[in-house]
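Hi all, long-time lurker, first post. I run a small reading group and we've been trying to get comfortable going from sequence to structure in the token notation. Rather than ask abstract questions, I figured I'd post a concrete chain and ask someone more experienced to write out its structure so we can walk through it together at our next meeting. Sequence below, copied exactly:
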Amino acid sequence: MAEEKTGMGLEQNVAGLLCYVLGWVSGLVFYLMEKENKFVRFHAMQSIIVFGGLTVIGMVLSFIPILGWIVSTLLSLLALVLWILLMIRAYQNVWYKLPWVGGLAEKYSQ
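-- Answer (accepted) --
Happy to help. Here is the structure in token form:
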């Protein structure tokens, strides 16, 4: 498959990977900057939803003594695994949709 360029001049798989590098922050940057490439917009929106949600949940859990801290630590491990997985799949030029979140990301990235 031929690599497509984005509006920013990057290959779409590289831009897709970069959507995840800084979590929801880089997702937001790419979502706002890329207007045409649906692949990049999808990965940017998925990054915003996944890592934005995990950030908010982690912040709430950090205020709950002991149990919240334990769950927050496990959530951080999950976030690390998702971060690596999503970057790899985007770099492989795959429309990798997470359950629940992928459908939302697809809907809101159009």
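A couple of things your group might point at:
Residues 13 and 94 are 8 Å apart (CA to CA).
The helical segments are 12-21, 24-33, 38-61, 67-91, 101-108.
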